[in-house]
Amino acid sequence: MTMNKPIRNIMFFALIMVIILMANLSIVHVFKEDEYANNPLNRRMFIKAKLQPRGQISAGGIVLAESKQEEENGFYHREYPNQSQQFGIVEGYLSDVYGSNGIESSYNDILSGTANSPKLWWKKLISNEKVVGNVELTLIPSVQQTAYSKMSDAGYEGAVVAIKPSTGEVLAMASTPSYDSAKIADENTAEQAWKQYTEDEGSPLLNHATQDILPPGSTFKVITTAAALASGKYNPSSTLTGESQITLPGTTSTLENYGGQTCAGSHQVSLLTAFQYSCNTAFVQMSIDVGTDELRTAAAAFGVEEQYDLGLPMSKGTLGPIPDNAALGQSSIGQRDVSMSVLQNAVVAATVANGGVRMEPHVVSKVRANDLSILSETKPKELSHDIKPETAETLTQLMRASEQHTSGGSSSLNIASKTGTAEHGEDSRNSNPHAWYIAFAPGEDIAVAVVVKNGGDRGQAATGGSVAAPIGRAVISAVQAANAQGGK
């Protein structure tokens, strides 16, 4: 008996559906097992994770995050035993309710022992037990404490980043206001803490060191000067205007020096004097002469519009559009649409300190297994060497002069720096400016950037020299002290 056509069609359709089902099952089990098994929405995996300890996060030998087992149910919960508010924006948090952030999130597979690492797999095989990674940070606890306390004790909003120029190691990354990782992780305090942090106008859950991009003000003059030096048209002795104000080309708008004063009391000044006294009119004149392309090239060499893979959320800076010379003049002094994070500005200082070589910043030093053997280690990575050594040397000379002016000649520290007082907002000239300070210690492998938002406690009277510079100097001193004690 022959099968009639409708039955054949039904069987053919059923066969096709079986083939599709088998293919889908194969894809799920063979190719997407890890994706589905480790999906945070998978409740079974959530319970499994709670039954197993998690790797530690540490810095300078101090444990910042660890797992503790509960006696009643055998579950493990996350604890943050040391200065969790100071380290919060780096270590992050792990919460049953609010998920994870920071290193807890980006290194989750390492900390939980689920990473596709040959070394982890081999250790699991020979030990026949769970192997997790313990993450060690580059942060120096004493330096982190100084950076955080100098900001938080004064009630400042902003951030501090300290970098080792030769390697890119982040020695401190403080953000204020911050959050307490322990309160978010503890189920008894999580809801109240989360409500407090999300409603705080200071945005404590935001990493102000990497995610907050702001006009850098006169700290950007380091980049403008690098462009001028690279053009071959300028050197420290080159003559520029010192007039109190300058009319932007093609407009009736004027741009003034700070306080409406002539530059160092003179109508004509050298580039050295213009940099030392941070004279806006001189930099407008110089940038227009050098050109937009050269300014963009210098900004790219310093990584202004780049993002770095630190395992932390990061926003990239921008120069914005520069359609004409008026816009170029405004951009040359770090205003108009120019924006940078504190991390990016720390990289600027570090690049000058490193002879023009820009290194990739990183906050994770190494990952160790349970037996303390090294599973992975971050190696220094050179990103560019587009700033010539002689340009970096000249910038160091200029920044030394700037520090002497900023400190009134009273600073006994070996520092080269640049300050910035950045206007912002719709009524920028009447705003409480952001106070900036970027600096390094020549020959000592230390660079730092500081921003105090909205003038701190000084309002419109704030300047980078009066508000941010003392913090930067204190952090440099803390690094020097830590180095003298062996990096502790």
TrEMBL record:
Taxonomy, superkingdom: Bacteria
Domain Penicillin-binding protein transpeptidase: 158-476
Pfam families: PBP_dimer_2, Transpeptidase
Keyword entries, A-Z: Membrane, Transmembrane, Transmembrane helix
GO MF, one annotated term: penicillin binding
Name this polypeptide is given: Penicillin-binding protein, transpeptidase domain protein
Domain Penicillin binding protein A dimerisation: 54-126
PANTHER family: PENICILLIN-BINDING PROTEIN 4B (PTHR30627:SF24), PEPTIDOGLYCAN D,D-TRANSPEPTIDASE (PTHR30627)
Biased composition (Polar residues): 401-420
Organism: Corynebacterium matruchotii ATCC 14266
Any one annotated GO CC term: plasma membrane
InterPro entries in the cross-refs: Beta-lactam/transpept, Beta-lactam/transpept-like, PBPA_dimer, PCN-bd_Tpept
